[in-house]
Design brief:
This protein has ten helices and 16 strands. The protein has 299 residues and is α/β, with parallel strands linked by helices. Bound molecules: flavin mononucleotide.
Length: 299
């Protein structure tokens, strides 16, 4: 039974995508990456970035709250040192993080001709970096401007990764689609605060962080359902997946691909287990992923 999914002309061997920031640059666990539908790198900024002060992670059974920030090697080292080392058979998507149009211009102009790169995920949504992606992603106007600039600079697939923090994600989704994005990634982490009551101050070094993991899944499912019914480009879900059942729920809600994020921090081989669960489901049901996308029925 084939699990393949097409987004336009781009083929994915199955609907699973390893989410940005939860699997590094794809240099380890390649036996997992090579079984997935696609892989997204950690966010790349123009300049090398050391990220936020410690502590950077607070977690419980149901949630991760991270304030890693955009710790990454920066464009020059990514292109010259990291990219040549990436050796995967799965489509490689590079997550691009910028604070303004110039950043995105520099990033895309530098990377667009790289044959190894299948496409770009525009990080319009990172809530962790002051004056960062959040400011861009919260306004439909700015989302539209970044996306249309990116569209003018590359013919590779463009995924716009959006936030729902302090904004109407239906409007930013429409702006990204109108500006030429090939798909929407819904959503990045939610703004979150952990308080150390003894110290009477925030627990995380950066002051606040981004909430992810199973607790956000019902919320993201709702957003995926609403947006995918209103916007005419594919939606890629990102939020709280830990099982094959979660993936099937997202497909029914209207997602064409589904990202695995925080679960990779718990178990880097989780993607393999989830893939087996999906295979079993689709074999038993005698249908394909494409056959259930958006097929959620009304109550
Ligand atoms: C530690 C950590 C680092 C992340 N780094 C990035 C990043 O660099 N760029 C980005 O767009 N999203 C980043 N994310 C967000 C994830 O890609 C994903 O969208 C989010 O965690 C929701 O999915 P999940 O609930 O499956 O984790 C990060 C998430 C975590 C937990």
């Amino acid at each position: 039974m084939s699990l393949e999914v097409f987004l336009g002309k781009a083929r994915f061997r199955n609907p699973l995508v390893l989410a940005s920031g939860t699997f590094g640059y794809g240099l380890t666990h390649t036996h997992v990456i090579d079984r997935m539908g696609a892989f997204v790198t950690k966010g790349i900024t123009v300049q090398e970035c050391v990220g936020n002060p410690q502590p950077r992670i607070w977690d419980s059974r149901e949630t991760v709250i991270n304030s890693v920030g955009l710790e990454n090697v920066g464009l020059k080292r990514f292109k010259e040192e990291t990219l040549p080392l990436i050796d995967i058979s799965t489509p490689l998507y590079v997550n691009l993080a910028g604070v303004d149009l110039d950043d995105f211009r520099i990033l895309i102009e530098s990377l667009s001709d790289e044959e190894k790169i299948a496409g770009f995920e525009l990080n319009l949504s990172c809530p962790n970096v002051k004056e960062g992606g959040a400011a861009l992603g919260q306004s439909a106007d700015r989302v539209g401007k970044v996306t249309s600039l990116a569209r003018s600079l590359t013919t590779k697939p463009l995924w716009a990764k959006l936030t729902s923090n302090f904004c109407d994600v239906r409007e930013t989704s429409k702006a990204a689609a109108d500006a030429g994005a090939d798909a929407l990634v819904l959503i990045n982490t939610l703004n979150a605060l952990v308080i150390d009551i003894k110290g009477r101050k925030p627990f995380l070094g950066a002051g606040s962080g981004g909430l992810s993991g199973p607790a956000i899944k019902p919320y993201v499912l709702y957003i995926v359902k609403e947006v995918s019914r209103q916007i005419n480009i594919p939606v890629i879900a990102s939020g709280g997946v830990t099982s094959g059942t979660d993936v099937i729920e997202y497909l029914l809600a209207g997602a064409s691909l589904v990202q695995l994020g925080s679960i990779n921090l718990v178990d880097p081989e989780a993607g393999l287990r989830i893939l087996e669960e999906l295979k079993r489901y689709f074999e038993q049901e005698g249908i394909s992923p494409a056959g259930i996308i958006g097929r959620l029925e009304e109550r």
